[in-house]
Structure formats: structure tokens, C-alpha cells
Amino acid sequence: MTNWIRACGLDDIEQEGARRFDHEGRTYAVFRSPDDEVFCTDGLCTHEAVHIADGLVMDYEVECPKHAGAFDYRTGAATRPPPCINLRTYPARVEGGSVLVAMPVTAV
């Protein structure tokens, strides 16, 4: 079961840009591709837990601001060391000008 939540407005993210958002004690990053698609990953680099949304976004890649490692934000794949662990990704879509992200519902 998934829960779609509003992360931000589409206009809050530049093309080839990223935005951080926090939800239930976790940090995520939302990306806007050159062709206006949206993607979501965990918000912390898997190498040193730096906010990945603060990194340089070019085409479909985000560069970690600390050690210049990189990830393909569409798949979460680590594409340049030092990170060797992929980022987790989450379904994202645009609806009514808002970016929605599917968050797993945790059992209580």
C-alpha cells in the first residue's frame, strides 16, 4: 500500500534542479529532469549522509556536494565513486502543479 504525499510545487524546482523535503523524520530529494519529468530518491548520499539535493544536477545525474560522487536520480544508481551503494527511489508524479511522491505505508 502506498500513500501519495505532496512534496512541493513543480515550480519550486528548476529544470535540472533538486529540492529537499522531509517527511516523518526522513529526508528525500525531488528532481526535475530536462524534459520536466520528476523523480524522488532518499535525500542523503549513501557515502557520507550529505544532503544530495544540495548537489549539482546536470541532465539525469546529481553530484554529491561533499566528495563529488554521483548518482543517476532516475534509478538511484551510483555512477561515480566514492559512493558504491545506490540511492533508494520512490515513484513521483505531477498532479495539479504539485509534485506527489509515493511513500510506503508503515504498519502500526
Automatic annotation (TrEMBL):
InterPro entries: MocE_2FeS (IPR012747), Rieske_2Fe-2S (IPR017941), Rieske_2Fe-2S_sf (IPR036922). It comes from the Bacteria. One of its GO terms (molecular function) is 2 iron, 2 sulfur cluster binding. The keyword Disulfide bond does not apply. Residues 5-101 form the Rieske domain. Keywords: 2Fe-2S, Iron, Iron-sulfur, Metal-binding. Transmembrane segments: none annotated. Gene3D superfamilies: Rieske [2Fe-2S] iron-sulphur domain (2.102.10.10). The keyword Amino-acid biosynthesis does not apply. This is Rieske family ferredoxin. It comes from Mesorhizobium atlanticum.
